[in-house]
Amino acid sequence: MLPMFAGMIPGGLRYGSSYVVEFEPDSPWFEMSLTMAAEALIDGLKTEYHVFIHPPSEVRESLSKLGLDVERLEREDSLRILDTYDVMTGLAAPETPAGMRSKGREPIETHHSFNLEGWSGRVLNAIKQGVTQDEKRWLHLDDNTSIINHYSEERTIIDTWRERLVPYARVRELVLVNSLVSGVASENFYKHFEALCDGIIDLQSREEAGRFEHYARVRTLRGGSVDSRWRRLRLLSNGGVKTDSGPVKERGLGLGGWLKGPRK
User: Fold this and answer.
1) pTM of the entire structure?
2) CATH 3.40.50.300 fits 3-258, yes or no
3) What angle do CA 18, 221, 206 make, to 5 degrees?
4) Cα separation, 88 vs 73, whole angstroms
5) 137: alpha, beta or left, given left = phi > 0 and alpha = psi -120 to 50?
6) What is the pLDDT of residues 148-189, one digit of tens each?
């Protein structure tokens, strides 16, 4: 159980399941995802943090500010920072997590060039060969999965998730949390992606009294109960995010509120 979702998902996120977070560009998804990772690691849950748009060093620095001994966690193979950022930018050779390197393994996400078909092939091999017990039951968080839309056609992405990534999450018994920026792909793409997932989480922001406020909700969770009302997100001085314990009581919040625009 991640404290951030305690009031929204009574039963918690389930292993072997896939979730998607849809967030606006000005919402604090990066900070929220790091807080989720920190909560999981503090609770003893193995965690993979997959970077597409942030260098691994930034993730390490942020997790350290949240009170974690990042070097120890990586060495013990409790934390893996999966480096697709350097694959895509070409600024450096992609890193191999220290814990995996000590076991003679290499993550499928950090090949030396990004090609969704090649990535798909490596996932298929992993599914066919099976995975060792220590590769099971991880929390896997993406900082921004929708970067893949710049490299691949929407249909190819959907097919890859349906045929490879969702089955891979089941084989590894992952809690797989992908993340998509709202409004950068077709409506058809979002609908198909959502249909593949076991749960959908929304992040939105709006201007109130001259400042931006941030909100989150669990829109749906298949096979479980949720409180789908919006909750305010609080940004903390250490870079973390805290979710209000109770739902927002203001009138007009939610989709209708955003369509009407901020209150004057």
Assistant:
1) 0.92
2) yes
3) 95
4) 26
5) left
6) 999 999 999 999 999 999 999 999 999 999 999 999 999 999
